[in-house]
Amino acid sequence: MNQYRVGITIGLHHEAETLWNNGIKQNAIFLTETLRNCINVRSIVLVNTTAIPITKALPWDLERWPTCTFDDAKDDLDIMIELGGQIGPEQTDYLKRRGVRLVSYCCGFEYVHAMESVLFNKPIWGSDLFVNQRYDDLWMIPQVAGISQSYFEVFRRQRARVIPFVWSPLFLDERTRMLPEEGRYRPHAGPRRLSVMEPNINIVKFCLYPALIAEVAYRERPEQIALLQVTNAGQIARESAEFISLMNQLDIVRQHKAVFLGRHETPEFLSNNTDIVISHQLENPLNYFYLEVCWQGYPLIHNAELCQDLGYYYHANDVDEGARRVIEAIDAHDAHRGYYRERQRALIARYLPDNRQIVTSYAALIDDLMCRPLR
User: Fold this and answer.
1) So which domain of life are we looking at (predicted)?
2) 119-163 tens-digit pLDDT
3) Which of these, 40, 217, 290, 341, could form a disulfide with 297 (CB 3.0-4.6 Å)?
4) Backbone phi, then psi, for 254, in 5-degree steps?
5) d(CA 257, CA 262)
6) In this structure, what are the phi and psi dihedrals at residue 256, rounded to the nearest 5 degrees?
């Protein structure tokens, strides 16, 4: 059987860049773990495409996940998967001359980024845009297909295929090791603390609907809700007159039961501050945050249709249903918290890097890729 040498790109911005500022670097490592289980993969290396040097300050094990520059990797690859950092035309040409297959691993809702960049004067690429049209394949995780598939295909002149989503608790476990009960959900006496942890950087994951869900639940059960905490919202709560005006219509705000905070790492904030998590998304119906929350046994109130069996699901933008699920969690979660956590972990196993179906799918993707004519 043929075995192939694989590179997966990342784009570092700091020598000791945290793994918790976005999911891209975690995605690269989870993909590495998955491909390591494929019988047709000989070796895997993470390839940094920026000028940031590779040092021991990186927050991952460099022996387990070897990391190097493009120049150090370029002559020892059969496949380059462009995931977290883009290579340029000269680098593409070099790889193509060597017969390397080039894959675009599409894991961002790029149509939304492009739309907002144009409409709201949020420059991303300016006049220096390079759209690589020499990919041998486009691999696309399922949650971005609905809104971005055609965007990918038209500009990159290649058909995209939906591939399995992968996740692992390995970084979550590492981060929670020193937390009480390893950061797992623990019953909290008294009224519940509600948390909303949307990024609030675009329309895809924004805190407004979760705040409305909390408000409706609070109107029905004010004595059972201690606090609404909205992270990643400190700036808009200070500077956006529109946001301030909207929030001041809510009882939970008027009665000083809501706080708007800055950025927090998910594992620690859950462990120290949270009883129930409320979430909402548009066109991003599966992401790491949901899996982190559910893996640790916290009640997650969410509308992510690709994982309806996780947490406490409500449909679309139905605030009333979301509030009912909050109240359900208040009334019943503690009584079955152990079963809930183990059930969540059993369900999440379908995304793990050693899941047999996932590994088989990626091995087949690689075989198919290597059978295609080089573009």
Assistant:
1) Bacteria
2) 999 888 877 899 999 999 999 999 999 999 999 999 999 999 999
3) 341
4) -60, -30
5) 17
6) 60, 40
